[in-house]
Design a protein that fits this description.
CATH superfamily of the largest domain: HAD superfamily/HAD-like
Number of domains: 2
Shape: elongated
CATH architecture of the largest domain: 3-Layer(aba) Sandwich
Mean pLDDT: 91
CATH topology of the largest domain: Rossmann fold
Structural class: alpha/beta
CATH class of the largest domain: Alpha Beta
């Protein structure tokens, strides 16, 4: 019996990669130094807030700054967080390359569904060595925008569109991510959901179909 074609919709930050938050921690410290602000920023605190927008990170760590200053600091972040900076810190998550490769070898499709800007996420996929393993990238640009929108709503729209265009049943579209927004979008779109639980990071409560500690557990789907 021929196996069903499947699409694996991956969150990127915190799921397929590791280390970006360490680089961001160093950026926060560099900005504080540049602006003459005393700091004692902890990496654990950065991880606790993981997934919020850049603006909200800055509001938290620089509470005395007004909105105009926050916008200026965001420009500093974008300047510092270039490819040279990212190469120092960002790596593929353990097992990610192997899992993506085995999914592709089995005839299925990998896509990335990210909150980041396309100009940020696509170079990162190359940096971590996944460019040949990802078929499509959907980036909704929540992290750097000043606009307010619900990432669950935006991700659900993308997943429903993919489901319709590829004529996929529920078991054929698998959404994988570490945050509640990833899982809730998958549930709303009618997909199978996997929550990746990262040790050392806060864990969102979700109704994911599966909760896993290693990406290799996804391979049960192929």
């Amino acid at each position: 019996m021929k196996k069903q074609f499947k699409v694996f919709a991956w969150d990127f930050h915190g799921t397929l990669e590791q280390g970006v938050e360490v680089g961001f921690w160093h950026i926060l410290k560099a900005i504080a130094k540049k602006r003459g602000i005393a700091e004692n920023f902890k990496l654990s605190e950065v991880r606790k807030l993981y997934g919020v927008t850049v603006a909200n990170y800055l509001r938290h760590f620089f509470p005395e700054s007004n909105e105009a200053e926050i916008r200026e600091v965001m420009k500093d972040v974008a300047t510092i967080q270039n490819q040279s900076h990212l190469k120092k810190y960002v790596r593929a998550a353990p097992g990610a390359i192997e899992v993506l490769g085995r999914i592709r070898a089995a005839g299925h499709k990998n896509i990335v569904l990210s909150n980041s800007h396309p100009d940020h996420i696509k170079p990162l996929i190359k940096i971590v060595g996944m460019a040949e393993l990802i078929d499509e990238v959907y980036a909704i640009d929540r992290h750097y925008t000043h606009k307010k929108f619900d990432p669950v709503v935006e991700k659900t729209k993308v997943l429903k569109r993919i489901k319709k265009q590829d004529q996929l049943g529920r078991s054929q579209l698998i959404a994988i991510g570490d945050r509640a927004s990833d899982i809730n979008a998958g549930i709303a779109a009618g997909t199978v959901t996997y929550q990746f639980l990262r040790r050392g990071f806060p864990i969102d409560e979700t109704d994911a179909d599966y909760k896993i500690y290693h990406l290799s557990e996804i391979l049960r789907e192929i």
